[in-house]
């Protein structure tokens, strides 16, 4: 993936993403509800404008047993990324839909579907896990 600059819905928070993600995935847990994500190393993401608009909601009821920090724009409510504290903040999980052409450029390669409807089949070539590996 090329380096990209993008933003939340209201363009109040702008960020720059460098390089390719470690992986791209889809999650069906109650927090994510079928949203696609890409996992980047922390240093690959740089907020260039709007840090004063960023707020964090901490989720503690996830499968890993460690909190997840959901970072969002306080003006438009757009979720920007999730920081899984199980990994001590070393990776940020960005929503691929807010990265320019992210849904096309970052096809998901795995999915976590413990809460997914079992009758719905995953696409061929997509690895399936009940939870995120390492949890």
Please, could you describe this protein's structure?
- The chain is an all-beta fold and 135 residues long.
- It has a domain at 4-24 and 35-106: Metal Binding Protein, Guanine Nucleotide Exchange Factor, Chain A, CATH 2.170.150.
- Helix content is 3%, strand content 40%.
- The protein has 1 helix and 11 strands, in the order E-E-E-E-E-E-E-E-E-H-E-E.
- The chain has one helix at residues 102-105; strands at 4-7, 14-17, 23-27, 35-41, 45-49, 54-59, 68-73, 79-84, 91-95, 110-112, 127-129.
- It has an 8-stranded mixed β-sheet with strand order 6-7-8-9-4-3-10-11, with no helix packed on it. The protein has a 3-stranded antiparallel β-sheet with strand order 1-2-5, with no helix packed on it.
- A hairpin with an 8-residue loop joins strand 6 (54-59) and strand 7.
- It is globular and about 40 Å long.
């Amino acid at each position: 993936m090329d380096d990209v600059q993008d933003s939340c819905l209201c363009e109040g928070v702008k960020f720059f993403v460098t390089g390719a993600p470690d992986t791209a995935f889809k999650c069906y847990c109650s927090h994510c509800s079928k949203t696609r994500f890409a996992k980047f190393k922390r240093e690959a993401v740089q907020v260039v404008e709007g840090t004063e608009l960023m707020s964090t909601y901490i989720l503690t009821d996830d499968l890993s047993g460690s909190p997840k920090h959901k970072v969002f724009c306080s003006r438009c409510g757009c979720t920007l990324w999730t920081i899984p504290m199980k990994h001590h903040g070393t990776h940020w999980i960005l929503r691929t839909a807010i990265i320019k052409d992210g849904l096309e450029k970052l096809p998901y390669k795995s999915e976590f579907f413990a809460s997914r409807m079992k009758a719905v089949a995953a696409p061929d070539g997509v690895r399936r896990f009940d939870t995120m590996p390492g949890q």
